[in-house]
């Protein structure tokens, strides 16, 4: 499938954008938080994505999305994909448990949208490629455009068949398309895509990659010309396309893509993919962040992608798919009109709440640590934050399945990414709980020097300290950026940040 | 002259709309080719369509029982590594 992390983006941006003008003079690497997602976007684009949970770290706490798995066929092979998709315990793109017909997909969407009034977006992302299944994909869109016109439609594609379907895509209530673009150089593409199906033949090697790249770029240009928002997903594959993705970022930005989402390769032998079996490793969190920072100079980068399943349901980071199995939705009686009115009311209230909550933060995003500027240079420090939303530290360490990671440096505080602790199936061992949750969490926090949370128990406290991660609970319920800044200032005052400066200098 | 789909098929639908003879149909536990309709695309295409898009090595056989896409031919995974993986993989 087309590596649909999710279909699209951001809310925090709404507030960041206010200071967007001033961001142009910043060093890209130290000014990531205003540029990290939509800060540079014109207001009319922010308006179009404000309620999209995938585009917005804040919106995802308020709005819900779902994917329907109506598109099983694919027209290319990627080395990170195994077409024998099916594991109910896994959460990653391309994996799906239950393939739906168009009727089932429409029924499921309407059922979810009635049960979860925060639902704002419906995406088709696989498990194959939506545009390699055009009849099913477009039939689903047609019916939903008619029956639930308030729900935004998204599609995530590998791009091979994109140019021929642009007109039809534009005919629907669709304003975002995600294209997975892993390269613009056929020599690199030949190491990622073993074959494509094109003009009734299977084409291999460089020739295949060249055709795919040409179609992706053409599709991107055609969508931008028609005013459709295009996000580009790239899978970072160390040693294959990691350096090259900087070039990809430049090219797609120049052509008008509004957001670039660099995602880490997920490769385990148990997944049965080429990369998994051949021992190709994924990037470390540090490598991923380094590349995102390098690309950020040219492009709005997406940092909070959860790399969801192709049939995910609910808020980002959660999956309520099991509540809406075909068997269950068959028994539901739904008043569609009432459900739509309820959605409108609930979502209007959310928007008001979000706007109100964000106003005071305009001044605090990308806070320059003025108090630190006059001191000796302190090195950047990564801190993990446990939050349930609202831009405050309000989650118990033990309840967190994911952590937001912030970097504090003399230049300010910026959001740099997300670490999930429950995402990847690593085979039987993890399914059997072979590795304890605490060990998994600590492994996920590698590179972070502090973890800010509402509370933390004694056992994890000691384990964290032993791993070199300082638990901090003094800032429970405080705004995240301010708390990170305060902890960093304290570290600097204690000589912590300065003392190991030589190590990174 | 006819091809056959066997149990390793993952029911991805990719082949079904491509068949010029409408010989492929959805079935449980896997898709099937109607041997009376299949022409192996002779006269319609240079390459048999189902076998040209099928992503699963070994899922489509020719009349003699030989895989049209033998192990390793689509994924590049050496067959000995694949066999080891299949034996070790979790069932779910």
In short:
With 505 residues, chain A is of the alpha/beta class.
How would you sum up this structure, described in words?
The complex is a heterodimer of chains A (505) and B (92). Chain A has 505 residues and is an alpha/beta fold. Chain A starts with 11 loop residues before the first helix and ends with a helix. Chain A contains 20 helices and 15 strands. The radius of gyration of chain A is 22 Å and the shape is globular. In chain A, α17 links the parallel β14 and β15. Chain B has 92 residues and is of the alpha+beta class. Chain B contains 2 helices and 4 strands, in the order βββαβα. In chain B, the strands form 2 sheets. Chain B has a two-stranded antiparallel sheet. A two-stranded antiparallel ribbon of chain B has the order 2-3. In chain B, a hairpin with a 6-residue loop joins β2 and β3. The N and C termini of chain B lie far apart (37 Å). The chains are: A alpha/beta (505), B alpha+beta (92). At the A-B interface, α10 of A face α1 and α2 of B.
Topology readout:
The complex is a heterodimer of chains A (505) and B (92).
Chain A: H1 12-16, H2 32-35, H3 43-49, E1 64-67, E2 76-77, H4 102-115, E3 119-124, H5 134-147, E4 152-157, H6 162-170, E5 174-180, H7 186-189, E6 195-198, E7 201-204, H8 205-225, E8 229-236, H9 244-254, E9 259-264, H10 274-278, H11 285-296, E10 313-315, H12 326-330, H13 336-358, H14 370-373, E11 381-385, E12 402-409, E13 412-420, H15 428-431, H16 437-444, E14 450-452, H17 458-466, E15 470-472, H18 480-493, H19 496-499, H20 501-504
Parallel strand pairs in A: 1-3, 3-4, 4-5, 5-8, 8-9, 11-14, 14-15
Antiparallel strand pairs in A: 1-10, 2-6, 6-7, 11-12, 12-13
Chain B: E1 4-5, E2 24-25, E3 32-33, H1 49-53, E4 60-61, H2 79-88
Antiparallel strand pairs in B: 1-4, 2-3
């Amino acid at each position: 499938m087309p590596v649909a992390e999710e279909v699209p983006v951001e809310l925090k941006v709404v507030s960041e954008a206010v200071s967007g003008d001033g961001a142009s003079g910043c060093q890209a690497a130290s000014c990531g938080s205003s540029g990290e997602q939509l800060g540079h976007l014109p207001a009319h684009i922010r308006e179009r994505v404000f309620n999209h949970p995938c585009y917005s770290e804040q919106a995802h706490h308020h709005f819900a999305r779902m994917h329907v798995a109506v598109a099983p066929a694919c027209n290319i092979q990627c080395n990170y994909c195994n077409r024998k998709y099916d594991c109910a315990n896994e959460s990653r793109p391309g994996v799906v448990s239950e393939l739906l017909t168009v009727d089932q997909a429409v029924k499921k969407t309407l059922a979810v949208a009635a049960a979860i009034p925060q639902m704002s977006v419906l995406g088709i992302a696989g498990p194959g490629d939506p545009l390699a299944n055009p009849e099913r994909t477009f039939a689903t869109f047609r019916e939903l455009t008619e029956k639930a016109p308030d729900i935004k439609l998204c599609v995530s594609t590998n791009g091979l068949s994109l140019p021929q379907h642009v007109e039809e895509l534009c005919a629907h209530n669709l304003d975002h398309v995600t294209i997975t673009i892993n390269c613009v150089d056929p020599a690199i593409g030949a190491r990622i895509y073993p074959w494509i199906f094109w003009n009734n033949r299977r084409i291999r090697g460089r020739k295949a990659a060249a055709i795919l790249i040409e179609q992706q770029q053409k599709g991107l240009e055609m969508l931008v010309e028609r005013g459709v928002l295009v996000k580009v997903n790239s899978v970072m594959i160390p040693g294959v396309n990691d350096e090259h993705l900087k070039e990809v970022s430049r090219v797609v930005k120049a052509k008008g893509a509004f957001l670039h989402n660099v995602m880490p390769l997920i490769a385990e032998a148990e997944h049965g993919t080429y990369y998994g079996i051949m021992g190709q490793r994924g990037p470390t969190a540090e490598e991923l962040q380094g590349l995102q920072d390098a690309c950020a100079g040219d492009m709005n980068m997406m940092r909070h992608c959860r790399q969801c399943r192709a049939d995910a349901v609910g808020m980002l980071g959660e999956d309520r798919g099991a509540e809406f199995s075909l068997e269950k939705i068959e028994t539901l009686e739904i008043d569609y009109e009432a459900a739509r009115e309820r959605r409108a009311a609930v979502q209007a209230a959310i928007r008001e709440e979000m706007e109100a909550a964000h106003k005071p933060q305009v001044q605090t995003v990308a806070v320059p640590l003025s108090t630190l500027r006059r001191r000796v240079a302190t090195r950047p420090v990564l801190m993990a934050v446990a939050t349930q939303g609202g831009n405050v530290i309000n989650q118990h360490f033990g309840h967190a399945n994911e952590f937001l990671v912030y970097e504090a440096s003399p230049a300010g505080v910026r959001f740099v990414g997300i670490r999930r602790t429950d995402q990847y199936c690593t085979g039987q061992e993890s399914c059997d709980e072979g590795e304890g949750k605490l060990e998994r969490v600590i492994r996920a926090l590698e590179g972070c020097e502090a973890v800010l949370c509402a509370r933390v128990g004694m056992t994890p406290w000691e384990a964290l300290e032993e791993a070199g991660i300082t638990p901090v609970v003094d800032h429970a319920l405080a705004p995240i950026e301010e708390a990170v800044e305060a902890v960093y200032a304290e570290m600097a005052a204690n000589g912590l940040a300065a003392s190991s400066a030589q190590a990174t200098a | 002259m006819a091809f056959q789909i066997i149990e390793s098929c993952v029911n991805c639908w990719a082949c079904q709309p491509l068949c010029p003879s409408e010989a492929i149909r959805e079935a449980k536990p896997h898709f099937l080719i109607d041997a009376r309709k299949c022409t192996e695309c002779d006269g319609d295409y240079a390459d048999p369509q189902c076998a040209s898009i099928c992503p699963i090595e070994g899922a489509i056989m020719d009349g003699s029982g030989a895989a049209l896409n033998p192990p390793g031919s689509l994924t590049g995974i050496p067959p000995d590594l694949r066999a080891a993986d299949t034996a070790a993989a979790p069932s779910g």
